[in-house]
Protein: Tetratricopeptide repeat protein
Organism: Streptomyces racemochromogenes
Amino acid sequence: MAASSHSPNSSFRRLRGTHSPAEFAAMVRRAAREIGETVSCDARYIGRVESGEIRCPNYAYERVFLHMFPGRTLADLGFSPREAVRGRAAQRALPTPPAFTHLIHRSKESDVQRRAFMAGGSATVAAATLGLTLLGDSRRIPSRAGEAEAAAVEDAVRQIRLLDDRHGADALYRRAAQPLRTAYALLDAGATRQSTEDRLHAGAGELAVSVGWLAHDSGRFEDARSHYAEALATARVAGDAGLEAHAFSNMAFLARDRGRPRESVRAAQAGRRAARSLGSPRLLSLLSLREAGGWSGLGDRRACEEALTRAHTEFARGARAADPEWMSFFGEAELESLESRCWAALGEHARAARHARRAADLQDPHFARNVALYTAELADDLARAGAPDEAAWAGGRVLDLLAGVQSTRIRSMLAGTARILVPHQRSPRVGAFLTRHAQV
């Protein structure tokens, strides 16, 4: 098996000293209680940090670690900057673009907004950061796009992904439409050199996929389909196999959610064909999971199991340098979640619940939207598997998370779970959940 692309965090390992991972995890939990934080740290989490799999902790862990080691910064503890973990910089270093005023404004006001969001501000503040446009106040398209413009498009993609991870899609979708229009206007204007034009094509296409996902997650399926098709067309024009595979992956996901399983299978298979030359087993694994989701929707258990086996085999080959940066969300937790959806579609809800529970347990809390999604899947599976009290507990946890996450998809899923639980409302736990859900 190929070596992992993660670099071990030797600085953090030295801080653990002679304590075992389990002992050190207990120290972390104790330190968290001292400052009023709640973290579910265990030996496995410590191992993930030390192996380099967790390159930057979420905000709760950050506060705990800085409390444990006063005077040190995250860099001193061996962590990478948060922006680098979620951005294109996680895959390759880009030259710092020159200072410019006609692109995304990094004014004091926007810096304040960004800090407010990163400190846990509301989704409204998060959306405000996307009010920045690629052209700032001038609204003028340059006669030829340069490296700065290409970098600005790439930065817009990073911002959307960071904000979506934390707050979900609903508050972001309309804010993200303007940067997308500007990106394609820049593409139409042409670039000063071919390498810049290639970056603009890739950046505009990835931005179209990201905005399409915001539409998808907020229930605007026709808008999502249009954005994904735009990304696919951009990929075909530019001959960009990676972008093509990404577009097909999201199109397969959307088709599944729209109740078009055969279309989902075809899109996933097309994505696999595009991805074969890219050298990323993890991408092939994700596309196999998309295909499995389509087969499960068709009720074809055998084809679904074959695709799941292929997905696990490819996932086990490990991370590679060729893995696309947008796949940073795809780890063991997402694999468990997508497999859970397959078993649920096949009517095996108890089995689906086991995978959904693992997904929720494995997910880094920094990805708040995904934690809410996986827990909502767990609640639904438990309700359908005949475990109403457990389902109500999971549903209550989702309601806690939805205070900071705006996702129509998750809310719709939870509403379906609530309907299933109505016959069990005499149970105190179920009744309390249904009352709270109705109030929300």
In short: The chain has three domains: 10-80, 91-238, 240-330. Residues 194-217 form the longest helix (24 residues). DSSP finds 21 helices and no strands in the chain.
